[in-house]
Write a structure and sequence with these properties.
With 341 residues, the chain is an alpha/beta fold. It has 2 domains: 132 residues, Response regulator (Rossmann fold), CATH 3.40.50; 155 residues, Response regulator (Rossmann fold), CATH 3.40.50. 44% of the residues lie in helices and 18% in strands. It is built from 10 helices and 12 strands. Strands 2-1-3-4-5-11 form a 6-stranded parallel beta sheet, with helices on both faces. A 6-stranded mixed beta sheet has the order 7-6-8-9-10-12, with helices on both faces. Helix 7 packs across helix 8. The protein is elongated.
Length: 341
């Protein structure tokens, strides 16, 4: 073959190699697939599911992950959503919440090549103990203790009936640890304080009116601070506090999971847990090959995955100093907030 004919063929081959190489590179950069399966609270609850979604969004933005949220409208959607995610090739799948535990356990057992993580559910409690799964757990009693301590101090300062309350979504370990810490912290600051507790048995924001009614009943009994631990439903409890945030003894609302101070001046503070950071670290570990199953990623005050949101400017600075001293004692292990009611 002549040199004139050979050169064009070589150029075509080289160009093809460049195109194929570029395509392969693009494909390789898009091969990591990360997913989230919501609970029935959906992703617009302004707290728990929303934070999980933020972790997924960061995986897309920073890791270049192909991402998808599998929405669960009812509990019967959990297992089909996990199955769909695994069959569609998602390598890292987050289960958002305690209620998804049994179905995630089943899916992780059936799809051992996929990696799973579940928020607020310890790995040791999974029936089949799948080695391709981890628990993203939080010692929320620590943060709960701190916001309860502030609530107890504020109730004492405001005078009158010494009452604080909580509205929980369901009686679950991941709800009750918040509340147990909250009540203990309030009593630490104000030994004479009375506590009230009701459960809505719902988390979705569509049930906010129910949480509001429960909180209004608590306020009628003298509650000066209402801690919502009910996801989207709990926004109604905070609305109840807002409606009664007036006079010399204003009722305070306390947010949960995310910093909910943006809701208004009636928010005393929020108990926060960085679900977004925890879920992102899980996605990162799968992407970079450092994932190790069969254990928990635990969130505490010490490692910064638990905390307190913005505190109202109406709180005396001396109260915040006292709270921070309590925080230091918890981190040192000298105070151990209860995780059970």
């Amino acid at each position: 073959m002549s040199m004139k004919k050979t050169l064009p063929l070589l150029l075509v081959a080289a160009l093809a190699a460049v195109i194929l190489g570029t395509t392969a590179s693009a494909q390789n950069s898009a091969t990591f697939k990360a997913a989230m399966v919501s609970d029935t609270g959906n992703i617009n609850d302004k707290s728990f599911n929303h934070l999980s979604k933020l972790g997924l969004d960061k995986a897309h933005r920073v890791l270049g992950a192909q991402t998808h949220v599998f929405i669960s409208n009812s509990a019967s959607d959990y297992l089909p959503n996990f199955t769909a995610a695994a069959r569609q090739g998602y390598q890292a799948i987050v289960a958002t919440g305690f209620l998804l535990g049994a179905d995630m356990d089943t899916a992780a057992t059936q799809f051992p090549k996929a990696k799973f993580a579940i928020v607020d559910f310890p790995w040791s409690a999974l029936t089949h103990k799948p080695k391709n799964a981890v628990g993203l757990t939080f010692e929320s009693q620590q943060s709960g203790y701190l916001v309860g301590y502030l609530a107890g101090l504020m109730a004492k300062k405001q005078g009158g009936k010494q009452v604080v309350s909580a509205v929980g979504g369901k009686k679950l370990p991941s709800v009750d640890n918040w509340i147990a810490g909250y009540f203990a912290g309030a009593k630490k600051a104000n030994p004479g304080v009375k506590t009230l507790l009701d459960y809505s048995n719902e988390f979705p924001v569509s049930f906010a009116a129910k949480c509001k009614e429960l909180a209004l009943n608590q306020i009628a009994k003298g509650s000066q601070a209402v801690f919502q631990v009910a996801g989207g439903c709990g926004l109604g409890a905070l609305d109840a506090a807002k409606a009664n945030h007036k006079g010399k003894r204003p009722v305070w609302g306390i947010g949960v999971d995310a910093d909910q101070s943006y809701l208004g001046a009636h928010i005393l503070t929020s108990g926060t847990k960085k679900v977004d950071v925890s879920t992102y670290r899980f996605y990162l570990s799968v992407k970079n090959g450092t994932f190790k199953g069969g254990r928990n990623f635990d969130g505490t005050l010490k490692n910064g995955l638990q905390g307190v949101g913005k505190i109202s400017a109406k709180v005396p600075p001396a109260f915040i100093v006292k709270m921070n001293k309590i925080k230091a004692l918890i981190i040192k292990g000298k105070i151990k907030p209860p995780a059970k009611l």
